[in-house]
Each structure stands twice: as structure tokens, then as C-alpha cells.
Amino acid sequence: MIEYHGVSRSYGDRLAVDHLDLSIPAGELFAFLGPNGAGKTTTMKMAVGLLQPNQGHVRVCGHDVAKEPREAKSKLSYVPDEPHLYDKLTGREFLQFISDMYGMHGTEHADCEIERFGMGKFIDELTETYSHGMKQRLVFASAFLHKPEVLVVDEPMVGLDPQNIRLVKDILRAQAAAGTTVFMSTHALEIAEEIGDRIGIIVGGRIRFLGTLADLKEKCRQQNSTLEEMFLEMTHEEN
Ligand SMILES: Nc1ncnc2c1ncn2[C@@H]1O[C@H](COP(=O)(O)OP(=O)(O)OP(=O)(O)O)[C@@H](O)[C@H]1O
Ligand SMILES: [Mg+2]
Fold it and tell me: Whose CA is nearest to atom 2 of ligand 1?
């Protein structure tokens, strides 16, 4: 569903992503781990067409993101790490606006997401009054409106309280179980452990580990280290 073939991306002379090959199949919840500055956001932005690779290509649902951007983008949703909202709209107006942009008539799509994300109490207030967790739930809800086949979410749990972390985890798992491909970045090994079907660890723009949790545990067993020790050791050099 998401495929990177020999993808590199630099900012000036700083190489952020270095010859990346990665394939995330349909219905997988892929957890992308790595230290600050490892290249996670850069990698994700290339899947959603916000950055172009300098080399290689990215395909989403079989469409080349650079050559067929409309087709690729129509299949996906992106939740960035620092989402912005329209301050002077209520949450409901925001959802209706996004819904209308997708050409989806009626209010039932928005109503369904308001219910799923437990936003009934505050949905008719201006978004400028929302806490971080409320904003994050609204952005998530908007990302699901057009029933995307692929969801790209950059550090979705940061700044959320335990209840909202649980809510987001459960929804991401349920979406993947229903066939949505979820590409999620996180710094937290325990989140990747708990909900990821597969884990990718990127350091300095290169994939250092790619496999299931069982594969990662086996690697730990061979090296006689704990998961945390292994993770810290892998990601240490760039910190
Ligand atoms: N707009 C930019 N201009 C210049 N350099 C950039 C820009 N965006 C990212 N970089 C650099 O590219 C590298 C990868 O950054 P990126 O944001 O992709 O990392 P990340 O893994 O998402 O980090 P974090 O965990 O902190 O979000 C870093 O060295 C960063 O400084
Ligand atoms: Mg990032």
C-alpha cells in the first residue's frame, strides 16, 4: 500500500533520508521508531506529497505520489505532528467543512466521528478554546471522514493523557483490523510494542531494524539484552 523505492531526501547538504526501501502492506499497523532528527517526519511527508524525494520514488495504493498526486492523495489521510485548525470555527463546523471539501453531503459522516472520538461535549465550541487533546481528537476525526485506505500519523500520542492515548491506540488498531494501512511514528518503544504489527527503526536516515516484535525480541535474546537496552543502543549514535 505504501512503497518506498531507493528514496533519498536532503535539506541543503544535510541528508535526512538515505536510500530508503520500505513496503507497508494493506491493513498493517506499521510503527516507525527513531530518535529526534532520524528522518521519520521527512519520510512520512514524502508519502503524502508534502516533500519530493531527491532520488527514488514513493507509491501509495499503486500510484506514484509525484506522477499521480491526485490519485495517491485521494486514498490517504495525514495527521501531522503539529496540526493547525481554524480558530474561529467550531469543531462541528470544521468537520463539516472538511466533509464538504471531499464532496460528502449530509452530516452523518461528521456525526459518526464526533461519537467515536467522544467529542459531543465540546464540538459546538470554537476550536480556539480547545485543549491539546481536544484538538488532536478533532484532527483525527477529520482524517477519518473520507474513509482513507491509508493513514499516515506522525507521533499521534504526544501530549495526550492516558485515556486519550488508549482511545487513539484502540481506534488505530480497529482501523488496521478493518483493512486501513496505518503508518505511525512514535518515540515510545512501548507503544510500538503494544500495537505495531511491524516495527521499523530509523537512525540517521537509514533503516536499522525492520521486522515484527518477535523478530526484535529474538535479536535481543541473541545479544543477551533487554528490548530497551537494544533500542537505546541502536538509536544512541545519533543523539
Ligand atoms: N525544513 C527543514 N530544513 C532543514 N533541515 C530539516 C528540515 N526538516 C528536517 N530537517 C533535518 O532533517 C533531519 C530529519 O528530520 P525529521 O524531522 O525528518 O526527523 P524526525 O525523525 O521526524 O525527528 P523528530 O523525532 O524530532 O520529529 C534532521 O537532521 C533535521 O534537522
Ligand atoms: Mg518528526
Answer: 11
